[in-house]
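Section handout 9: paired folding examples.
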Amino acid sequence: MLRRVAAASLSLLAPVLALDDDETWRSPWQRRCHGRIDEWASALAAGARAARDQAARLDLLAAQGARGAVVPGPAAPSGPRPSAPPVPAGWGRPPAGPGSTVVGVAFSPERLAELARRLRRAADDAARLAAEVRRIVPALPGDTGGALVVAGPCQGLDQVAAEAPDLADAIAGRLTYAASGGSAGFAGSGGSVMTAASGGRGADVAPTVTGLAASIGADPFRLDLRELSELATRLGQLGPAELRAVVGGLRGRPLEVLAAAVRIAPTRAELRTLGLLPAVLAVGDLLLRGAPASMVAEIARLFPGLEPPVGGRYGPWEYTVGHPPSTGDLTMHDRGRDPLWASGVTPSDVGQGAVGDCYLLAALIGIARADPGLLRRNLRENPNGTVSVTVHLPSGAVPVTVTRSLPVRAGAGQEIAADGDNPAGEPELWAALYEKAYARMAGSYARLEGGDPATAMEYLTGTTAVRRSPSAVTVGELAARLAAGGVVTVVTRSDLPPDSGLVPNHAYAVLGADARTGRVLLCNPWDQTGTDDRLDWHDWDGLEPALGGVQWASTRRGPPAR
């Protein structure tokens, strides 16, 4: 089955690649889309190689009659390794003509609409193939072996399943906007040729900008919560390209007045208008994810709470973008050029820094093992470089938008929070940005100190988490939870003996459980080093007295876990 998945992975994007030519991919935005597809093709090729490697490992296990372990090191598969799909002519070349800037771009809307359809089909096929791989985990020799077999083959599949629908939606949105007469950066039947230099901003947004600026006025105290709520509704109804153009038109005094009105809104709320406050306070988040890239820093500075402060024991001051301190040794380091993902989502990507939020990072590690695609789906990269993290509240799922700036110690460049690099030293920001979104919700990084892994699971998965006494849990039950795609964590007691090998008052992710031997595999959220992979097997009977609690949740919506 793994060899069949390898072959299917290599052909997954063939229908998408068949639509590539110089005419389709000419504008800067379209070429960025093209680059994303190129990344997926490379990831799928790497996943196909991993699938064949793992199939060879399983052949060797069967030949040796091994039980409960995976042969270390990749075994060379028989025959040549698969390569990436062939690159069509014109892929990655600059458009014809002098210079590198496209002034006028014409395209076939029918062709791009078909591309969006094929991208969605590719996403569905990728999700189906990844699910097939994960279904064989219980049949493999031990949970650790299953995790090793699944991680590589699924990395490209998970990426396509999570990102291809977003790209299809972006293409469809631009087609819709162009068809309505707006400026989306290209033209087709019924539309005019748009100029890339205009940034997709058409004359039709001018009345909207004028009307909103008039509604905002010059006095923040004149705007009550009802007016702010109506304005938030109007902004929320704009498409991505319209919102970007409108926010750009509000630059300067109108934006400053709006930000001041949002800042003072909580002090002016009355009982009859209290229900409007969440929508009003969400205006900053809406603008941050929809603004032109050149305005991101300005919006983060003007609107309250968009950058979580760093304070408490991390420094004598609290830092917010745009308000540098006069003393202290902390600063915010812009990681805007660094990718969210390097080589797929794996538990080893998560590394705890100086912030005491082991409960959150242990939950992230558990989800990375159980359903890495969920973490990809819940983290969306916006066109302006910001990132929106989906957080599940009791009232429903909401996007929490953050910039790519991370707190570091000035001079040393040492990050105080979750590591923005993976164990190989490659930039990989996804775990640090999940933590930053959580810090935004809490109010600051300092307020992340101490927490409940079960609550973090619920915020991250949208499912109900369960808390159990360690004495009421068996290794067989833990193994069943993990095999079903569950997230499992444990929390240690404060009164541990010095030779326990565990950290007191600390959360660990459970990545494996072997009912036959009665052992569980714990992962410490601390940052991985070159000599410590943070993984240790423990005998459950000896471990149970050292634990204060066990928590688990499912990554799949359905009846609450019991």
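Moving on to protein 2 of 2.
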Amino acid sequence: MSVSKVTGIETEYGILIRGAKESNHFLASRMLLQQCGVMEFKAIPDSEVAASPDIFLTPLYSLMLPNGARFYIDHAHPEYCTAETMHPRDVVAADKAGEIIVERCRRLANASGTLPEGQEIAIYKNNSDYKGNSYGCHENYLITASTYEELINRQGHLSLRILVPFLVTRNILCGAGKVGYENDNSPTNFQLTQRADFFETLFGLQTTYNRPLINTRDESHAENLHFRRLHVIVGDANMSEYSTYLKVGTTQLVLMMLEDNYITLDLTLKEPIVAVKTVSRDLTFGEELPLANGSKASAIEIQRQFLDLAKKYVEEHNSTDEFKEVIQEWEDTLNKLAKNWQMLNQRLDWAIKRNLLERYLQTQNCSWQSISKWEPVILKTLFLKRQAVGDDLADLVQVIQSQLPDRTQLEDLDWKDYWRQREVYFTLRRLDLEYHDIRRGKVEKDMGLFYQLQNCGAVERLLNDKEIQHFVDKPPSDTRAYLRGYCISKYFDQIQQVDWSEIKFYLPEEEQSYYLRLPDLIDGNKAHVETVLEAQSSPDLLKLLDSLSKLNFTITTEKKIH
């Protein structure tokens, strides 16, 4: 029997200090967290942006927020992890709420006067810096311990036959799109995903090097005997609400079917790592992937097999209306993709971005074909300065030829067009980056490119602003995040330490610590504790802990030793 698919998304944001000679990522990230006042999550008008109050910040630069989320520094980048959330739409809303909180901190930091004049922090919800570095957007799903053992520790049976083929081909639904290539992979002008070029192995514990398709990290943040956390690291960070919705909703359904032993398919890919890159580069969506059994199937065909099973599963298990909606959107997306990707150019990130870039190319009388010809030359001559070479064609050709020993790259190129093609190429990359700018101000100059498109109706929305704002201010009501968020909000001054599954309170007058354990991801939801919380006429911690103990929450004490 499958367990509730409690889900969270952790996003590592790209960050830089614009205007600085050298951008110190850690310094910029630390400034963000220092502005994140735990009691100040209401909307702040631009005219009132000022330094925020103290925060609950540990020496490790990590804080838990009243909305149930965690905001911290990871590898010098700001990382926001949503609270434990149950339903796909809520996961999307919680993820978007994270953007608002991170962006609010950026505005506060820039207005604090800490940075020298002319410098400001910029933040991008993307996955690559075009310098060979990739930073992740990871999904976390609650699964049974037995399913985890099958997927991770036995490494083969379920993972290779089912989970890997699903995740590899899922990118046609939720890739964020990318100009160019990285990490010494085969050249391409545009691909569906930002992360494809960085995966190198199938299984592994690591996330920042020799990246695996299946991450084996075993940190359940829950009662370990019955529950585990599946840490999915193959997805892109999404701006589009529909892309995140399909990414999470389809994965929840596949994991539910796995737990109920509903999937008997064997879609084992012959070369999974190669397949990731193939799917990302296949803009026809028809290239067939070799399977281990000798047959072949395209990404759309593989996704359709999962969809057909999910439709039957939802009907037989009387699933909620929300999962029926996931099925509808999944099927609609695959149908449109099979006909014409332009039918999705207002819904999916890679399609929105591709449409934007191709419209720009048209204005420049260029094409992807010309970009393909020029890209290797431009990248090899990345540091070539026009001032140093001038406009003399012979000098230009001589300098470029000296840097390109492979003369086949020089065929059929009109060198008079070098500087224009170079400008077009780097404009494409700039547009790619600016698409992920999370600014969402009230006027166009204060909006990132994605939100400019959304504001003018060029992006379809799944949610409304009210749904998102709810998760800026409040935790989800159907998981333990509800109780944890309440405690952080009401008993902030008495909390000594807090994590996903435990809160440590300290009462100095008693010189005693109290530990509230939250091993179950559902216990602590609103329905479970609402009566107790409403009975708290004043923030009396001992009274609260006594009431929670009567609801079978585990509470232990520790006396301070002199």
